[in-house]
Fold this protein.
Amino acid sequence: MSREKYILTEQDVDKFDELFSKDLSNEDYAKLQLLMDTDEVFKYKLILYRKLTQEISQEAESNEKLKSRFKKIDIKAKNKHKLAWLRLAIAACLAIIVGFGYRYIYNTKGKSEIVYEAYKNSEPGLPIRMANNNVTLFDSAMIAFKKDDFGAAISLLNRSEVSDTTIYFIGVCHEMSGADNDAIIAYQTTVRSHSMYIANKAKYRLMLVFMKRDDIRYKKLLEEISKDNNSPYQSSAIKIRSMLGES
């Protein structure tokens, strides 16, 4: 997939503006979720749009005093010529704010973080085995994990039998909680697991965290995964390389 497909155009911004300017029905939400799940380009552009609007909003708030000063000067203006000039000045300031938002989004670090957000929640957890209501500590941890209660999940996993699987999911919980350093330690431990299932998972998550942090080590891992025909994450890695313009 070509890199140009991932560029957020003015037409895309207009469509998203129109979409979020109204209250969405349950049917609208269902359609939006379906697009997010099936259309990688749409998902990327939507995340890009949300990041952009957040940046513009933050910049607008930080420049509130500047706009207030323009407003006071505008009130004191004595003729239409001055009023027109001030309006142009305010428009120029807002244009600079919007331009800053676009530049922020399209710099290298910003792009890596956006791609990370698109793939961050790709770990669904393991199925919960509930036989005769005999729920293990690990099952309870997975229940907490699926509820995004990562603190409780870590506590339960630490009390479970030690294995590469529990260490890996402790890492995922740390990652989801923003504790990247702890997550990296867990992934670097389990990437050498005898279980290829866990090793592949750990390698993929380690790559994502490195990418989020703009740590150059992600490039080697990403390339390896994209060329590994036995990796279940090969397709995702190829898409990520394309999104980052590294294919």
User: Anything to note?
Assistant: Residues 77-83, 97-109 have pLDDT under 50 and may be disordered. The chain has two domains: 3-106, 124-243. The CA atoms of residues 80 and 187 lie 65 Å apart. The first helix runs from residue 10 to 20.
